[in-house]
Amino acid sequence: MAALLCGACGRSIRHDPSSTSTGAGGTGTTSGTGGTGGTSGATGNGGSSISVSPESATEFVHTVVGRVAESSCLSSLVATPSGVVVAGTRHDQPFSASGERDAPEGSWWQESLLPETRGRSLVFGDDSGYVLASSAAYPSTTAPAELDIELHHPDGSTTFFEWPAPGDPVAGIGSPSGFTVALSDANQLALLRSDGDGFSLIPVEAEPCVAPSSVALGHFGDDVVVAYFCTRFVRTDTAEAQHLIVARLNAVSGEVEKTTLDVGLGETVNGQVESGTPAATWVDGEFLFAHGTSGSSAQMALTRVGDDLIPHTQVVTGTPVTSVNAGDYDPIYSVVQVGDRIALARSACNGHEDDGPTGSVSVCNVSPSTLEASCYDVEAPCSGAKLVANGAGVTLLGCPRGGAAALVPLELTAPPTPGAAQFPAGYTDFTPLSVIASGDGSSALFAVSAAELTTGYDRRVARVDLTWPALCSYGPGAACSPTQSFALTDVVTATHIRGGYYSSSLGVEAQPAGFPIGLTSVRRDGIQSVPTLSRLERSGSVRWTEPLINTSMVFFNEGESYRLMGGEFTTTTLAEYVASAGGVTEEPGLAVGSAASPPGVAQCDGRYFVHGTTITTSVTELATPAIYTVTPGDSAPRFLFNPGVAAATSGRPPPALGCAGARIFLLEGVVLHRYLENGEREPDITVGTPLTPGTSNGTLVTRLETHRDYALVLSGNMLANELGALFLYPDGTTRAFALPVAEGVLPISSLMSAPDLVNGWLTVLYQSVNREGPHAQWGNSVSSAYRLPL
């Protein structure tokens, strides 16, 4: 959940899922969409340099439209009359979030404790309410660790308690009227009990032993029982090594009676048992354990233990084969039973000598009568998958080793069918791709995390719509906020991991004007990766998809088709294609010297301008920079002039190319070069303030975009906490604006604007990479709307 921040009125209103700021006047910063950009660089050859004094926006509104979670883990879920509540950790802090049953996908009210705390949250309950328990340690102070407990009652009221008990909550059972929480501290185990009149703490395991992910709680009569997996590799005087244990808290004597279960766990390697981490859950008066089988790490087994403490073990058949690395607690199991169906999950992580670790997740639907499993298996980043009951259904919770955790509803079909994933704590990726403005708001496209537990490394394209009320006042003190909706589209791109880093490819048509919009991505076809071009409707459906040579192209909308340039070129020819619903046709190619990949291309008045080099006819002749003009369907481009700026320079991004009518622009770092079509050069314009070398704010972001009636240069001025917008018109006139940004946003990593001004408003989309200060918004994507006096 985000906040409505009124910069001029000093108010804060919580709502989901955006954060909105409004204000008037003042200096600030601007951003943009639909072009290419560069970083700070040197001035080109020739041409004097001038600056344009900026004007101010009359009004502005900032809305947070996407949040990123660097790391998060979901541990538990409880169904409520209106929806669900999930809990876990976010950035090593205790975290919980609630989602309404009928709310749009992606709408979550996030609850965060104080930034300086460390710990985790756990939620559990039943029809009579739920309990949220959160551990809170303060590593930067001498304050003692505590357990914060919230009792959420059916009437909507909440009772709060604090208990000075160290340890993280790992399992819970009961309701606000009486409950038990299992606490794990340094792999030790204790039970915190509440009977409605007070609290009591009972030690269970005093030595480091417990795998927190394996703990479950239940009741045998009036006795509380806790089941857990002991991870110790060496037998002690009190317990066996690596065994499943059931500890019973005698309600009469108050004593803890521990029983080690005689169950074969995993495979013995070099004298120690390679068991992975078994799972435990409580089902209808008995414990259900999931674990590996003795003698074969590829097999899974289920063990049931009732009040007689006699284990009954059966092997599950039909599960995918996996392996266990010696000395590792891998894989991690999870199990849940709802009605007459059992869901079983196994997560594995494998290290590699010459690359980063990779993982796999298997999720199975198991028949209780035959224990025959029907599973799906997906390669995925190393992640723990936990299954939980969600009313009459089953939900898969993620706990990745870095990145954002997903919540995936499952249909227990054969094999299980995953539903649309949600990310209550934020996304691993939420990268802006494009933004389109309309009369009542805007639509933005983002590359977002897919559910790695179900789709592996793939990423998806999401659309976020902001709709403003018809009578919305943006002035100071206005409590006006847009209605925000989130939806995943049908565009998915395959993502690969190399050297421990993700690599994916998503591209958007150049100079977009609205929907439908063209997107390039990579589709998996068995072991092959196929580059594709898709025409995406506003609804999120794909009208058509066609295969490409590769995605390193720039492409433009020409009505029902797209013109693509790049992908493959020689020193004398630039490849050109036309794609439509009928397929992809290769054109003869453009006689343009070697260009950057993708090449610098801009479209104005039905013509294309290309930044390349001259074509040499001998080995002694040196190629020089060149600007060409191309008419669609003509393979003979016309040379215009030498701009004095190379199309591709080693160690620096190529300059961005733009146009307005017959005027041509090259953006090289913070310097804008301006030309007439006959090659006459107009004075350069400095569009931003270069940063002092060695500053911590990184690189100044600049961007040049070509729109229907003007070109636009956007820059992020981190020293003044503002963006800069420079409008360039076909008649040679210019207008510059300094526009404020949301607090804590700068520096930024991406910057784009909507292609048209709507009712005098410029819509800008940007993403923060700021990690410093109390208001740091690292990873947040912000949509800002500015009313300009144009």
Rg, nearest Å = 30 Å
Per DSSP E runs of 2 or more residues, the count of β-strands stands at 66
Oligomer: single chain
Report helical residue fraction: under 10%
Strand content: over 45%
* SS-derived structural category: mainly beta
Q: What's the shape?
A: elongated
Which blocks of ≥5 consecutive residues have pLDDT under 50? 1-19, 24-45, 473-479, 497-502, 690-698
Biggest β-sheet: count, sense, barrel?
7 strands, mixed
N- to C-terminal distance: 35 Å
Arithmetic mean of pLDDT = 80
Q: Give the strand order of the largest sheet, numbering strands 1, 2, ... along the chain.
A: 2-1-3-7-66-65-64
- DSSP helical segment count: 1
How are the SSEs ordered, and which strands pair?
Elements: E1 2-6, E2 11-15, E3 19-24, E4 35-38, E5 49-50, E6 55-56, E7 59-66, E8 72-79, E9 83-90, E10 93-100, E11 109-112, E12 121-126, E13 129-136, E14 146-152, E15 158-163, E16 168-175, E17 178-185, E18 188-194, E19 199-205, E20 216-220, E21 223-229, E22 244-249, E23 256-260, E24 267-269, E25 272-274, E26 279-283, E27 286-293, E28 296-305, E29 311-316, E30 332-338, E31 341-352, E32 355-366, E33 373-380, E34 383-390, E35 393-400, E36 407-411, E37 417-418, E38 430-438, E39 441-449, H1 452-455, E40 459-467, E41 483-493, E42 495-498, E43 501-504, E44 507-508, E45 517-525, E46 528-536, E47 542-547, E48 553-557, E49 562-569, E50 574-580, E51 583-586, E52 600-604, E53 607-613, E54 625-630, E55 638-641, E56 656-660, E57 663-668, E58 671-676, E59 681-686, E60 702-706, E61 711-717, E62 722-728, E63 734-740, E64 748-753, E65 761-768, E66 781-787
Parallel strand pairs: 1-3, 5-59, 6-63
Antiparallel strand pairs: 1-2, 3-7, 4-60, 7-66, 8-9, 9-10, 10-11, 12-13, 13-14, 14-15, 16-17, 17-18, 18-19, 20-21, 21-22, 22-23, 24-25, 26-27, 27-28, 28-29, 30-31, 31-32, 32-33, 34-35, 35-36, 36-37, 38-39, 39-40, 40-41, 42-43, 44-45, 45-46, 46-47, 48-49, 49-50, 50-51, 52-53, 53-54, 54-55, 56-57, ...
